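Record 1 of the preview.
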Amino acid sequence: MTARHRRCGHGTGRRHLGDQNAVAEFTAMLAARQRPAPWARRGDVAVRIGERGLERGRPPPDQQPDTDPVALVLIHPDTQTALTGTLHCAQARIHGEWTSPYRLLTQALAGRDLPPGTDLST
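->
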């Protein structure tokens, strides 16, 4: 049995509202990935993990703005719970300011653990 509102990408007519939302979210993620907002040294950051992944990192409130490496705690994109202890992250690994479209690229949202021995210092 097929879903009532499901159609292939080659069909005619308007897309279902759920399809429109998914396409809009994916398009926003691609745009944010290509043109990241610069990090102003305050607030959450998007940190590159591995080849394609990004995670949400939060520096401690007493972090000096020009410190390299930056002390970060990786947090879940939705629940705001800490995933790691404090890690030291090279500024070269910071992709930019955290924005909500990045949540699609996180390991935490997919229910996967971070790779063992995650090293952000290089």
